[in-house]
Fold TIGR03643 family protein.
Amino acid sequence: MATAQNHLSVDDVSRIIEMAWEDRTPFEAIEIQFGLSEPATIQLMRSELKASSFKLWRKRVTSRKSKHLKLRSPDISRAYCSRQYKPS
C-alpha cells in the first residue's frame, strides 16, 4: 500500500484526509479521484494521523453507512450537505 501513496502530493494527502473525515464522502469517491482503495485510505489515515485521532476517525467511520455507496440510501446523490458551498 505504500506504493499507492508514493504518487500523492502533500496537497493530495491533505485532501484525502479531509474527504475521509467528511461524513457524506464515500470511500469510492476517494478511490475514483485518487486511486486509493478503502484499505489504502485507512492505511494512509493510520500513517498521517496521531494514534488518538485515528482511533476517533475509525470509530466514526465504521458507524457511517454514508461512507460506503452500497450501504448508502439511494436518495442521497451528493457528497456534501445541501447547505454547504453556498455562493456568496
Observations:
- Residues 1 and 14 are 18 Å apart (CA to CA).
